[in-house]
Amino acid sequence: MEEKTKAKRKGRYVIIYLLLSVLIVLSLIYIINFFSLKQEAKEQSKLLSTIDIYEKENAKEVAQNISEDEEEKAELELEEKGETISTENTEEQKQETERILQVKQLQEQNADIIGWLEIENTNINYPVLQGTDNSYYMTHNYKKENSKNGSIFLDANYNWNIPSNNLLIYGHNLENGMMFQELLKYEKESFYQEHPVIRFTTAEEDAEYEIISAFKSRVYYKSEKNVFRYYFFLNRESEEEYNEFVKKAKNASLYPIDATASYGEQLITLSTCSYYVKDGRFAVIGRKLT
Fold first, then answer.
1. How many angstroms separate the CA atoms of 139 and 136, rounded?
2. How many Cβ atoms sit within 10 Å of the Cβ of residue 111?
3. Hey, which residues does 215 pair with through a beta bridge?
4. 166-170 and 152-154 as β-strands: parallel, antiparallel, unpaired?
5. Does domain 111-290 have CATH number 2.60.40.10?
6. In this predicted model, what pLDDT tens digit does every residue of 56-68 receive, in sequence order?
């Protein structure tokens, strides 16, 4: 009996030892991942700081890039009309030019960077990439390094040559608040009211998009009919298709939004995972302001 008791005790000790070993290993993995993600966050902040410094250092250079001939021509045209050049508009033009130059500078580091996305007063302030497929930048950062955070990326099938298109942009919903985690805050109408505009800058333009809808969704099965598969609308094929997408987006919105889109206006859709149901999604749609 004593031998059996000792054997049982020994077995328990072995099990406890194994459990403790597993817990230690899991704790080490968690700590390593935590500091890895924290380091990426620091690098992201460093990138933003670099851009801010670049903007300040190049303000004068950008102003000089506006040719004297163009300025004189603009002045003459306005004088003929009895008007004068607005200093405010000139400064705004310079600011937009600086923003575009920032994107061009980033493209020298990685040609896959196609723009910069920002929602003011949120953590959503990242470069946007476009790969040859929709899986690479789910696991790589803007430096093409392996990363659990991934990147904010534009759908690989987006066709830049089609007008009235939809910029379908994806990002992970991370617990650490990075990437598109704050997108879920649009569930509350008050958050939308405080953040009604999405800013998206490319090498060609610095544009703002007015939000027209925010809604919950999910990835639907092929067999499901009469559902809103917003993630399929990318390169519009007709005016009817465009209008139908806008109509469904407005109907799906969690709260009424007066702003809407008309055929011919560029759209932007920000999409992330939402865990309220299996394969859940959350999307925010905006239309380009002219």
1. 6
2. 10
3. 283
4. antiparallel
5. no
6. 444 344 334 434 4
